[in-house]
Design brief:
The chain is globular. It starts with 7 loop residues before the first helix and ends in a 7-residue tail after the last helix. Strands 1, 2, 3, 4, 5, 6, 7, 8 and 9 form a nine-stranded mixed beta sheet that branches. With about 250 residues, the chain is of the alpha/beta class. The chain has helices at about 10-35, 55-60, 75-85, 105-110, 120-130, 165-175, 190-210, 225-230, 240; strands at about 45, 65-70, 90-95, 110-115, 135-145, 150-155, 175-185, 215, 235. It is built from nine helices and nine strands. Helix 2 crosses helix 3 and helix 4 (about 105-110) crosses helix 5 (about 120-130). The structure holds pyridoxal-5'-phosphate. The site of pyridoxal-5'-phosphate has 13 residues, from strand 9 and helix 9.
């Protein structure tokens, strides 16, 4: 940190973020209490898409270590800016849809990609991670948009209907990727309780079959309580911490 006098706008924003973060922590604590779970078993990923790198720096100063981004190249630029500002120890989660031709770049700056939803993408991420000389942690995104005893693969907007098993197997076999678990976004038009219970069933199958694949990424600002109840290990919370986003393109 520099020795300059604090900028009043930054001081105000920091207070706002601190208060919102505390409210989210209260919600998580209450949900853990009701579910008989320990707060230590949950990781809060603060999703900062559309917000500036300066907000990520303030969050880091407030103790946030897990940051989520969903858009390339915005995410990569922010990783660089935040590192240049002196916050080197953050874990960067990529939670948004990944275009195949952007996979290599995303593999370079992300620590955990939540949204692996097709076999073709697995190959592209694997090549990118290998070229970057790293082992990249990945979650397979399960589409909960349709009822059934197994989820399908694919984000709300994007490829869907694929067999999750094929994507799971591809990640598990990729030399430069590590299968760490599953992720889902609750469908807008379905009951989140039912959706997250279906995700939990898929997660249990993956965990039993693959060592270290124990992450369940579920729950956003609106539905984090349901996700905690259903056994999520990672919550992806944006607006409840940062405020409303401008409309995305
Ligand atoms: C934006 C986003 C979030 C955070 O959503 P909020 O409603 O702002 O909490 C979580 N997951 C994904 C995949 C996102 O794109």
């Amino acid at each position: 940190m520099s020795g300059q006098a604090p900028d009043p706008a930054a001081t105000e924003r920091r207070a706002e973020l601190a208060e919102r973060l505390a409210r989210v922590e209260d919600r998580i604590a209450a949900a853990c209490g009701r579910a008989g779970r320990s707060r230590d078993d949950l990781t809060l990923v603060v999703v900062t898409k559309t917000f500036p790198a300066s907000d990520v720096c303030l969050l880091a100063e407030l103790g946030v270590t897990q940051v989520g981004e969903s858009r390339h190249p915005e995410a990569g630029r922010k990783v660089d800016e935040v590192r240049a500002a002196g916050h080197a120890g953050l874990c960067w989660h990529f939670v948004g849809a990944v275009q195949t031709n952007k996979a290599a770049a995303i593999a370079r700056y992300s620590d955990l990609v939540h949204s692996v939803d097709r076999v073709r993408l697995v190959a592209a991420l694997d090549r990118g991670a290998q070229r970057a000389g790293r082992l990249l942690d990945c979650l397979v995104q399960v589409d909960l948009g349709t009822a059934g005893d197994r989820g399908r693969i694919g984000p709300r907007a994007g490829a869907s209907g694929a067999d999750p098993d094929a994507v799971i197997a591809a990640v598990a076999q990729a030399a430069s990727l590590r299968l760490r678990g599953v992720m889902a976004v609750a469908p807008l038009d379905h009951d989140p309780v039912d959706a997250f219970d279906r995700l939990a069933a898929v997660a249990a199958t993956v965990r039993d079959a693959h060592l270290g694949a124990d992450i369940v990424s579920a729950g956003m600002s609106e539905d984090l309580e349901h996700a905690v109840r259903a056994g999520a290990t990672h919550l992806r919370v944006g607006r409840a911490v940062l405020g409303e986003r401008p409309l995305l393109r």
